[in-house]
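Researcher: Here's the sequence for the chain we discussed earlier.
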Amino acid sequence: MATVSVVIPSYNQAQWIGRTLDALIAQSRPPDQVVVVDDGSTDDTIKVVEGYRGKTPFDLEIVRQANGGPGAARNRGVQEATGEVIAFTDSDAVARVDWLANAMQSLDKEGDDCAGIEGRVEDDGLNPPTIRTHQLHNLHGGHFLTCNMLYRRKALHAVGGFRTRYREDSDLAFSLLERGYRIVFEPSAVVDHPPREGTAWEVFQLAKKRKHDALLWARHPDTCRQFLGSLYPPSESLVLLGEAGVVVGLLVGASAVVSLGLVVVLVGLPRVVLASLEGRQFNNRDYATVLVVGLTLPAVNFFYRSWGFWFRPQTLPADGADQRMSAN
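Model: Thanks. This is the structure I predict for it:
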């Protein structure tokens, strides 16, 4: 039976990481080792994790490093890991009791061309999401979220680990797929990722990460088309195009252009709005907020994606330049 190390990057997660470790202790198939990489936390994360020493059915390793982001923390965790299989989860995620057993059972059925297992990601259902909630879901596969991924060690080393500057979870999976490896989705390997409540306007802060989308597309254009569809989602593009038409029509005094622009906006807007409301609790006031976000976010996303596209020669590192995982 292959040995398994679980790698957990953590930054200021003292409030949550205890739940994550409790869930790993309760696994029907416990890991052989858990490596917690504290990525420069300023809270009591280390203190909480230290409290678990000697109380776990697995070896617990605690690594400290200066803040370098989750990709760098995961690479460091892989370096410290001893397992033949490396399982990744987040420090605020909760693995269900048969998570590791089901994932490993699935992996054991596959040949060496299978790089790893992608598990199902749900929310814990304790707090119904609102429009201000940040959620992570992976119900049918194809998202490769590192809160629930298992990789063979040799596959990780084949591509040099995580590139640490952008979309490192997708980049790693795409790099493996392009080398001929397979990644299998196992729906019975479930991790709950609790929704985080914030503000409706945080979506604009998250939009800054869209500039990294262009870097991912520059490296993996064909694979991005397969799994992501388009760098510029059609519904957002329609909203932006229609808004541009309205502005131009008003400037030149062409009412027909304004009307056409409004029609185009109305065609694209419902899907943008529904993406914000799907599965969430909301009230009449929230409708107004989502409408404003739906009308303005496409332009913000377009700006950052285009920024990443035009400036990617300066920001896209050469292959291997930002991979920090040693080849051992």
